[in-house]
Give the backbone structure.
Amino acid sequence: MSTTAYDLSRFSSENVVERRRIEVIDNPKRAAKSTRYRGTLIMLSVFLVVLMVLTVYNNMVLTDTKNLANAAVSNLNSLESEYTYLSYKLDSMVSLKNAEDYVVKELGLVKVNPSQVEYISLQNSDVIEKNEISEQKITDIFTRLWSAVIAIF
Amino acid sequence: MKRAVNAKIKITGMVLLLIVLFLFLAVRLTVIAVVDHKKYSELATSQQVRDMEITPKRGTIYDTNMNVLAESAVCWTVAISPDDIGDDAEKVAEFLGELLDIDSESIVEKSKEGGKYSRIMRKVDEPTAAKIREFAKTEKIGGIILEEDSKRYYPYGNFASHILGFVGTDNYGLAGLEASYNSVLSGTSGRIITAQNAVGSEMYYQYESVYNPVEGQNLVLTIDEVIQHYLESALETAVKEHHVANRATGIIMDVNTGAILGMATKGDFDPNNPFEIIDPVVLERLEKIENEEEREKAYYAEQEKQWNNKAIGEIYEPGSVYKVITAATALETNSVSMDSTFYCGGSIEVIEGTTMYCAIMAHGMQTFPECLVNSCNPGFIQIGQRIGRQNFWEYFKAFGFSEKTGIDLPGETDSVYYTADQMGIVELASVSYGQSNSITPIQMITAFSATVNGGYLVTPHVVRQIIDNDGNVIENIGGEIKRQVISRETSDRMRLMLEDVVTGFGSRNAYVSGFRIGGKSGTSQKLSSENERAFVASFCVFAPVDDPQIACLVLLDEANSYSIYGTALVGPVVANIMSNTLPYLGVEPSYTEEELLTVDVGVPNVVGMSLTMAYDQMQKKGLKFEVVGDGTSVTEQSPKGGFAAPRGTVVYLYTGDETPQFVDMPDLSNMSPSNAVSTLKSYGLNVRMTGPDNSGSIVVYQSHDPGEKVLTGTVITIEVVDSTGRD
């Protein structure tokens, strides 16, 4: 009985089969493809990085703008509030009651008597005629002349 | 082989274990994500989402000419964070104590209590808050907190306080229009929903949702600021002069539309500080109470009282003003005619054992219009008997006295009255001349307006429009006519009769030169009061008689003065109001020949003129003159040129070295008009008199105080009142 383990002829050099030597020749297409692939990868990476950066920057700017807008609105509210408060102070000082008290007591003014108000009725042409002025002037001239004459004598 | 089997078993076991674990996780995930989805979603939302309320701005209240009467603005709540304030507590306490006018020790005490929040003061104005911010920034102090809040401003203080009302600390309307129109004024809150990260910072805006608030709408009132001012001034003066113990009220209304042009009650309050009592008479009364507990109780009672709008919230017996309604009812039901006559012997026995007296005198035989002019109680008792209780009751209801007017203000109270079934002969007699039935002032003026506007009962209202912040009209609130109560013919007759009342003897206190005014005065005893001299004096007028525009009712409750009667006390008050209001409304005065003789003219400036020319100038204006000195030209004059003076005023013309002298103003109070005029003339002073020159008239006002130094020739204005007038 011979076993494979003891078949030494298997290890003799006569039975050695020479391996075909494979010569590796670089495929140009494959090299180019590999370069393109790398390039695309790099470009894609750059693009993604840029996109990320821009997105983050965009959000930063928007957040900043939002904060600025909020601050402006808050400032507006404060100014409006101050305006209302100052208007309240001013209105309370110049109320009709205070104004009347001041003009009567401090300035010594009196209310207009309704009889002192002259009502004018405007006609279609909206023309106001006041004839007495010219008459008054003429009368005044004669009065002055007469007074002057008397004064001389 | 065995090893392979073992390996296989182990692998199978692990796979099974993995499957079991996976199944467990899958089930757990399903439970969390599907079954308990809502619960965990809410938990996540509450943790991740911050929700802030945006308080809407409360609407503004304008008068009819768009003057601001009430407006809201942002204010601040000042608080401290005791844990963060550290060693700066003393410094902060000193600064805030001085700025906010509070005890700094209390702030120090609060800072020692610990915690993250301790409130110091609410409703702090923006300029004050700015100072606090500046202080915190300059001193680099943390621990001072400013929280945004809203404050209501009423620029004119106690002006129209009962109409406007006031708001509480949470800006909810508690009285007046602030309460009745709270839902319109308050708007709807908005929300800002933001996402927050694990440390509580807000995430960027993409996670933010804003729901804008709906701002409150604004009210444009029928109230005219100028007319309201005239009313309030007149009431304030009346309360002070006549020592009114239980407040006064007044209403001015457009008789055709029911628009309230003015409504006031004095003593009132300042809506900026509604819980403070400002009436000095009330404060004096409270200070006299020694017991602290009683004083505090009385203080709260007075606080409640001062908020009550007397014009709509209190009832009174109208007295003789109600005779207008009785007269209109009598004419409309043909119970009387203009020629009907009634006898007044000074009293009338209504039923056996019950006699009612005339407040004035025995008038003798009088016509129906004369009964009204004379305000004769026995006359009106007879008129009431002719009307009959059923008709009386029907017209009482028709004129709106048995129901509320429906005015758009809170707190309108019901009237108290006798129905037809409850009215016996005695009751009918007393209600005929305005006693026993109790009504509100707003009911009285509304019914009075119906008697003069053609017979239409209108709904009084104080709001004209509701507008948004851009000025767009949301709602117009016009005058609603409830019903026609009397015919136009009856109304026309009533207007002329009421004019006769004002121009007749006794009621001439309400007369205003140049204007046709009609009205009726009233005086009613307050039977519920322990004070026998507790009366309500009132006067209700309208103008112009030929084309009624406005009505005015003024009421003095418990006046302590030279008279108790409405015609004497309230007549001059309504005359004052009408003399200001009618020209403001553009009603042109029309003077009689007699009135033209007494109207003011401008004193010409004649200084430097010769005496001849000066004489001429004076004569043209209807002025008299008196020459002082021997010169030929005028060197000085009194009154000076440009001043207003009545025709017939004596102008003192000084020639040579003489100049006007000062004299001491005499005390004219309670003098008759003739005595007052002759006294003034003896002092070399001129006079301008307002009021009726009747035999019972007395001087109640003089423009210069007794003892004051005045130049000779000065025109002194005196006001006379017929103190013998009765209602």
